[in-house]
Each structure stands twice: as structure tokens, then as C-alpha cells.
Amino acid sequence: MTDRPRCYVAGPLGFTEAGRHYYEHVYLPALTAVVEPVDPWALATADEFAAAAAEGIDAQRALALDVGRRNAAAIRSCTLLAAYLEGQEPDSGTVAEVGFACGVGLTCFGLRSDARQAGEPGVAVNLQVEALIVDSGGVIVGSLDALVTALTRRPK
User: Fold this and answer.
1) Separate counts of helices (H) and strands (E) for the chain
2) Rounded Cα gap, residues 143 and 151, in angstroms
3) Is the pTM value of this prediction over 0.85?
4) If you average pLDDT over every residue of the chain, what do you get?
5) 133 by DSSP, 3-state: which?
């Protein structure tokens, strides 16, 4: 049992080889120091996706919906969410997870170090995403170190 809060780790890093490397060797270990990460990439296996692909489009759709439900259940099991919001436009699935998490009462945090403008002037990403995160009691920060600090100093 851990006294660290459960934190859903939202983000698209599992989709690419470089992203997976950063996620597994840098991002997740940094978060593990202060929270108990709930890793959505561990909620489904490559074998499940391969089997669904072999069965056809109906099986792929059924698996996709099931994985989405697993992720929603994982979010509900947490008190915090840390969102990786990098990229010219943050990943739509990550943004949906942030909205859902805020809606069910989690405190949400975001990491955005990308220098490109991704939303309205004065906000880090998009006015709706930032408003939801701030209203949840969280913040969007500009570095991984700042994210770890924010998670450490989160409202109790």
C-alpha cells in the first residue's frame, strides 16, 4: 500500500517509439517519485490489438470501446490526473481524458513546454482546457520538474 495519491497519466506518448522511451525512462519515473501512477498504456496489450485486427473491423471497434471504458474506470479510480499536453495541438484523447477527469472531480495538472501557440493568447493550451484544469485546483506547467513540484504541492 502506498500513501502517494493515485494519478492517471494521460498522454499520447505510447504511440511512438521515441515517446515510449521518454515515457518509460523519464516521465513515468519522475511522476512515480510523488504519485502512484495509473498507466493507461498498461490497460491493454499488443496481443489484444493484434487479435482484434485479425478478427476484423467489428472486433477492432469493440476493443477500442472497451479500452476507452477501461481508461474511464482507471480515471475514476484516481484523485489526480497528469496530462502531457505537448505538440502544436494537444492530443484529442488526452484532452478528452482531462475533461472527463475534471467532470468527475479529479484535480488535474498539465505539462506543456512547447513554445508554439496552441490556443488563445494568455493561456498555455486552449481556454477551455486551461479553465477546466485551473478550476479543478490544478495548473499547467512548463517543465517536468515543475509538474513534479506541482503534484507534490497539490491541494490536500
Assistant:
1) 7, 5
2) 12
3) yes
4) 94
5) helix
* CATH number for the domain whose boundaries are 6-42+79-152: 3.40.50.450
Residue-range domain boundaries for the chain = 6-42+79-152
Torsion of CA 145, 125, 96, 139, to 10 degrees: 40
Sequence-separated (6 or more) residues with CB below 8 Å from residue 46: none
pLDDT tens for each residue of 58-86:
999 999 999 999 999 999 999 999 999 99
Strand ranges (DSSP E) for the chain? 6-10, 36-38, 80-84, 107-111, 140-141
The CA distance from 23 to 41, in Å, is: 10
What would the grid cell of residue 67 be? 479500452
